[in-house]
Amino acid sequence: MKLFFSILLSLVVFTYVTGQTDTLGSKNDSIPGKFFLLQKVKRDGVTLPEVEIKEVTVLARPSVPRRSSLRQYDRLVANIKRVYPYAVIVRNRLEQVNNDLKSLKDDRERRKYIRGVEKDVFGEYEDDMRNMTITQGRLLIKLIDRETLNTSYELIREYRGGLSAVFWQGIARLFGTNLKDEYDAYGDDLLIEMIISEIDAGRL
Fold first, then answer.
1. pLDDT tens, residue by residue, 79-98
2. What distance in Å separates the CA atoms of residue 116 and residue 54, rounded to the nearest whole number?
């Protein structure tokens, strides 16, 4: 099962996802630091400066959990801290691969490039993936969907073919995992989203 997750990560990391550049790029500010780009906008004959700000999501803090729930919460926090960085790596690597493949017009060059990326990914992350638990693997699958806006199944089906997707989905289902799992920030995964917000803010 641990080998399955290392293979899954390699499939996702070096996959060429067309049309994702804008979405992935929107994760980061285009201007470093705390600078804001003012634009002149004319409304009703009056020109005023405007600045585009990020969307802000306001979430209520969870109530104080019972001791048993607190242990579960602590385990969830630990698991998220373990796998969340890899989901971000997947997102960033996809963006890098997309940009690099734009300059490669020949299919042979693209295949060669992808094989090189695959080799690098295995060398860098395979041991880490092998040491993940099944619970952490399930969480990683959801967080990949959060970061790339594609499920792991969709990525494999689109860029490795339907047979590969069905094969890996069958393996995943044997171990109680589903490559089609989607991330629901305002539903089942609300607590995960809140924890990630706290991690991003440096409070966890």
1. 999 999 988 888 888 788 77
2. 36
Q: What is the tens place of the pLDDT at every residue in 17-76?
A: 433 444 444 444 444 444 556 677 888 888 887 777 666 666 565 555 566 688 899 999
- Which class for 148: exposed (0-12), middle (13-18), buried (19 or more C-beta within 10 A)? buried
| 122 domain residue, yes or no | yes
* Three-class DSSP category at 164: helix
For 169-181, letters b (16+ CB in 10 Å) and e give: bebbeeeebebeb
For residue 93, is it within any domain?
yes
Rounded CA-CA distance 115/58 in Å is 43
User: Which residues, in sequence order, are CB contacts of 51 under 8 Å at separation 6+?
Assistant: 36, 37, 38, 39
Q: How many domains does the chain have?
A: 1
